[in-house]
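Backbone-to-sequence.
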């Protein structure tokens, strides 16, 4: 006990400990500010009972916004400081942070966010309403939340009230289970949703550093970039997005396949698809990895001649498809629904923002022509969809020679989907980020990713509205992103200090 207390004391006195406390303070500020500026309920009896309703209006709202944005900036600052220590640059050229320390910091930063209102998004209310549909005997793939009036429907964003569920049957089952326990209690339901996401966070914390074994990255850098990232923690945990589960299951499944547990890996990825269909992008690439392992195994055993590649592919792909089908049919049967979620995926087309290339192309076209946005957007989305199909097929065929190639192919496919799909949202970038973190990345690449993640974190409003159409909002986010990127390598990129900071003595390792 004394040894543990001594370790905690030493850690809190270290620069890493200071950064951990700074990020914790930021998370607390986000949680408190969210009560007024986050994705709050239209009517909040809890705030009224606590006499805090004033946080949602006038000066109270302005104060809440200040708390949220200061908290976000504190978390970004703490994250960048940890990054300098983790990669060994800036004021910590020879130091390092241990993996278990980073895992502890994940818990420290996540804990306050478990009790916040949904931040930067209102999707949690849609999740609960869709779970209540299944609970009350409706098919969420045939009707939207509007078919089941009540407190849960009251808080769903208007654009999604008539939209059928675009998520897999496993996630609907989780939603049904949560609403069966919490009823129409929005607060309890939101907290329960976050608790359900925690296994996904745990899987990412295990799988991403583990993937570095095969992909050449550094475990501590991978965990810092893919998990401690404010874009991930604030959006996926604070915003309560099912990407946390989906990405965790996908990364764990890929890690299992790389370790030659092929069937188990396919099962885990299939469960990820049953959460959100995007995880299915990884499956065709996992067939290549399985084939490589089978070829190596046969060569080691001296079993010649090897089967024709087409025969081996047909066998392994067929087996993988069978495993996937069993998992998906089972979850659909338990949920009592069909495959209507496939048609509901088109609901994302209701989202129009500057994060997707089709939207950028459509807006640019309207600037130089007399055409209106809607018909042009339909054309640009069709063109980008065709390009996306070509890119996905080419990527799958091109990246098949090694394990590293196959995972890189999954990464490229995710990036292509985000850019070329009809709609994109900031937290979508958690899909490829989790895989990119496992590769060996240069400091310049890490700086670019820090800048991008910071920008994506800042371009949405705390209540989930889009800030991309406000010039000054985008300008401020771009400036902050540039400073964050430069700060990964330089302690004071704006030269605000009157004296040059001294370099701290390197700490090679702590017992």
């Amino acid at each position: 006990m004394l040894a543990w207390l001594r370790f905690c004391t030493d850690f809190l006195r270290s620069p890493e400990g200071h950064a951990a406390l700074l990020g914790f303070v930021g998370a607390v500020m986000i949680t408190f500010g969210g009560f007024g500026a986050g994705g709050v309920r239209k009517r909040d009896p809890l705030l009224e009972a606590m006499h805090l309703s004033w946080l949602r209006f006038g000066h109270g709202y302005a104060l809440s916004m200040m708390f949220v944005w200061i908290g976000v900036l504190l978390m970004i600052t703490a994250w960048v400081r940890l990054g300098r220590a983790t990669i060994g640059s800036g004021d910590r050229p020879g130091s390092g942070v241990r993996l278990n320390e980073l895992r502890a910091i994940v818990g420290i930063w996540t804990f306050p966010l478990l009790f916040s209102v949904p931040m930067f998004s209102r999707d949690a209310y849609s999740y609960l309403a869709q779970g209540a549909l299944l609970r009350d005997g409706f098919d969420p793939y045939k009707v939207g939340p509007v078919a089941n009036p009540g407190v849960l429907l009251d808080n769903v964003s208007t654009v999604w009230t008539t939209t059928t569920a675009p998520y897999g049957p496993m996630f609907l089952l989780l939603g049904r289970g949560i609403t069966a326990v919490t009823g129409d209690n929005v607060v309890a339901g939101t907290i329960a949703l976050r608790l359900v996401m925690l296994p996904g966070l745990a899987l990412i914390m295990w799988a991403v550093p583990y993937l570095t074994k095969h992909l050449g990255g550094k475990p501590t850098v991978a965990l810092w970039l893919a998990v401690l990232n404010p874009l991930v923690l604030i959006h996926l945990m604070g915003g309560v997005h099912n990407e946390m589960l989906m990405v965790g299951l996908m990364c764990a499944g890929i890690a299992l396949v790389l370790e030659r547990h092929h069937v188990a890996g396919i099962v885990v990825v299939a469960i990820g698809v049953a959460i959100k269909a995007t995880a299915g992008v990884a499956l065709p690439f996992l067939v290549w990895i399985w084939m490589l392992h089978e070829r190596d195994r046969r060569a080691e055993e001296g079993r010649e001649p090897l089967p024709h590649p087409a025969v081996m592919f047909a066998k392994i792909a067929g087996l993988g498809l069978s495993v996937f089908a069993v998992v998906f049919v089972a979850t659909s049967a338990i949920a009592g629904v069909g495959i209507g979620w496939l048609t509901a995926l088109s609901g994302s087309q209701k989202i129009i923002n500057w994060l997707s290339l089709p939207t950028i192309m459509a807006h640019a076209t309207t600037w130089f022509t007399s055409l209106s946005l809607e018909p042009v957007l339909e054309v640009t989305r069709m063109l980008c969809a065709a390009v996306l199909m070509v890119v996905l097929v080419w990527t799958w065929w091109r990246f098949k020679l090694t394990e590293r190639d196959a995972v890189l192919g999954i990464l490229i496919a995710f990036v292509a989907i985000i850019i070329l799909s009809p709609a994109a949202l900031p937290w979508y970038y958690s899909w490829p980020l989790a895989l990119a973190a496992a590769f060996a990345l240069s400091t310049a690449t890490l700086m670019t990713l820090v800048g991008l993640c910071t920008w994506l974190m800042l371009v949405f409003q705390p209540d989930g509205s889009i800030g991309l159409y406000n010039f000054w909002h985008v300008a401020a986010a771009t400036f902050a992103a540039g400073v964050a990127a430069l700060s990964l390598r330089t302690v004071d990129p704006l030269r605000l200090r009157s004296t040059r900071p001294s370099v701290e003595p390197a700490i090679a390792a702590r017992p």
